[in-house]
């Protein structure tokens, strides 16, 4: 078990060696080291990104070709990327392959997306034409749960729009991103996308760098606040995709047996480390015991292990601080009166393993309900009236997603309408189309990613206004 983590206490002694270790969460062993870049290096990086921007923005057809080549290069490098991603992040290999497939699909999707030039008229004899212009160098800051997929959600629309990108992965998962950067470099012009790695304050300096024109960040709420404050220094545009505490509301006509597997994986995929995972389940009181038993049975049966093992369905928690958080939140829930119907504890042996946990008799005020556990722990709470369930589902500061489950999909959809969030699902959860907008409300974020909205989030309107010649 490692005793320290790379985000560490910041610029500790030893940073002079300019590298930091990256650990395998399944074994606790060091996989490799990554460059611990000094924030002062950012001046040259952003300067090169700015110079590369002038060529990149000039030719939309060349951009499309380069992004399609980039998608092919990612696919060709899939095996190496997937293994490295599993080793540093912990997820099962099949999920790493899915993440890489999503990355290349996103490059293809945005390669073909072009902003629409529009003419508008207010009845006067003038011609107003709205065109779209890129912003300049974009800073993309990414967390450790989906290092490649979330990076692509930022760089694919930013590049397609004609911007250049400086990408900073989490210090817990820099290796696959660095490899991805070198794969993309085979398809993109020099300095169009640059990966920088290092511990804080590298990210803080990047978001407040005067040469950055858009900061697109995915991560936790407190860091999001710091990022918004940092970007305010240079008045860069800010897009924040932050935490979530999605509720799943089961209706009284739900077929428990039929939905258990889907509901379980909506909560436990990637070891629960998904912003839009199901993080709370609300169940009619008369079905509560059945749902707890069904989910607990599923949790006890799941194969937990090293993500490289083909039998593994659930890997380790991704890093030591996150494991400590999951353990603390679970212990607190038990101290508040909860009972673990499955799991509730770390697993023995090396690595950051936590038994998949189903909690019942949970106090609604426990942090596992009010906050974001971001791990393999799921509280199941009973409700007496639908109004009570909807109020509870809407009762946190988050508003990323939510879902409603029942045999009558129209009735479930009518309840889903009442959820205060960005995406509401019926009878499933956390499925997204590349073409849809993705946005949270409240503490879940600012701005819109995904689909054409993600492209326009990386563009500014430019209006040409002239009299019509008669
Ligand atoms: P985090 O906020 O700790 O770190 C995110 C990134 O910010 C990392 O790259 C980190 O190094 C960097 N960073 C840290 N301090 C910084 C600073 N002062 N300035 C700039 N950058 C800084 O988040 P995490 O623990 O890596 O990720 C988990 C969180 O991400 C969860 O809250 C989860 O819900 C959220 N998340 C949200 C979405 C979404 O789309 N809404 C998706 C995935 C994860």
TrEMBL record:
InterPro entries: Ald_DH/histidinol_DH (IPR016161), Ald_DH_C (IPR016163), Ald_DH_CS_CYS (IPR016160), Ald_DH_CS_GLU (IPR029510), Ald_DH_N (IPR016162), Aldehyde_DH_dom (IPR015590), LUC3-like (IPR044086)
Chain ranges of the Aldehyde dehydrogenase domain: 18-455
Alphabetic keyword roster: Oxidoreductase
This protein's record includes keyword Oxidoreductase: yes
Active site (catalytic residues): 241
Low complexity bias (residue ranges): 1-19
Annotated region described as Disordered, given as residue ranges: 1-37
Family matches, as CDD domains: ALDH_AldA-AAD23400
Gene3D superfamilies the record matches: Aldehyde Dehydrogenase, Chain A, domain 1 (3.40.605.10), Aldehyde Dehydrogenase, Chain A, domain 2 (3.40.309.10)
Family affiliation: Belongs to the aldehyde dehydrogenase family.
Protein name as annotated: Aldehyde dehydrogenase family protein
């Amino acid at each position: 078990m490692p005793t320290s983590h790379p985000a560490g206490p910041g610029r500790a002694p030893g940073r002079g060696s300019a590298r930091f270790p990256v650990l395998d969460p399944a074994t606790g062993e060091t996989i490799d080291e990554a460059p611990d870049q000094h924030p002062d290096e950012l001046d040259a990086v952003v300067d090169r990104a700015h110079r590369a921007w002038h060529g990149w923005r000039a030719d939309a057809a060349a951009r499309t070709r380069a992004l399609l080549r980039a998608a092919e290069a990612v696919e060709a490098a899939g095996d190496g990327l997937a293994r490295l991603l599993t080793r540093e992040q912990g997820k099962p290999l099949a999920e790493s392959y899915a993440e890489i497939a999503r990355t290349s699909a996103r490059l293809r999707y945005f390669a073909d997306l072009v902003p629409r030039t529009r003419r508008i008229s207010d009845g006067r004899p003038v011609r107003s034409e709205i065109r779209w212009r890129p912003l300049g160098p974009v800073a993309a800051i990414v967390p450790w749960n989906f290092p490649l997929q979330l990076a692509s959600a930022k760089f694919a629309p930013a590049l397609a729009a004609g911007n250049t990108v400086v990408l900073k992965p989490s210090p817990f998962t820099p290796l696959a991103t660095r490899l991805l950067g070198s794969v993309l470099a085979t398809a993109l012009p020099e300095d169009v996308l640059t990966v920088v790695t290092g511990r804080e304050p590298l990210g803080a300096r990047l978001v407040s760098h005067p040469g950055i024109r858009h900061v697109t960040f995915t991560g936790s709420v407190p860091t999001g606040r710091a990022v918004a404050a940092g970007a305010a220094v240079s008045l860069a545009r800010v897009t924040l995709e932050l935490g979530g505490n999605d509720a799943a509301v089961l209706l009284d006509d739900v077929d428990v047996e039929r939905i258990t597997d889907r509901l379980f994986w909506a909560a436990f995929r990637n070891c629960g480390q998904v912003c839009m995972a199901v993080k709370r389940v609300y169940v009619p009181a008369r079905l509560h015991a059945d749902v707890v038993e069904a989910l607990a049975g599923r949790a006890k049966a799941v194969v937990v292990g090293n993500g490289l093992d083909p039998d593994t369905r659930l890997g380790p928690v991704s890093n030591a601080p996150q494991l400590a958080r999951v353990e603390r939140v679970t212990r607190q829930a038990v101290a508040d009166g909860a009972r673990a119907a499955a799991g509730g504890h770390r697993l023995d042996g090396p690595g950051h393993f936590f038994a998949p946990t189903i909690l019942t008799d949970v106090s609604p005020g426990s942090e596992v309900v009010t906050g974001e556990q971001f791990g393999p722990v799921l509280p199941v709470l009973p409700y007496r009236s639908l109004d009570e369930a909807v109020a509870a589902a809407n009762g946190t500061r988050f508003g990323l997603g939510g879902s409603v489950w029942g045999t009558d999909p129209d009735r479930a959809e009518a309840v889903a309408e009442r959820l205060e969030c960005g995406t509401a699902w019926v009878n499933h959860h956390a499925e997204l189309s590349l073409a849809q907008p993705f946005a949270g409300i409240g503490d879940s974020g600012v701005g819109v990613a995904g689909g054409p909205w993600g492209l326009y989030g990386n563009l500014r309107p430019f209006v040409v206004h002239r009299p019509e010649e008669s």
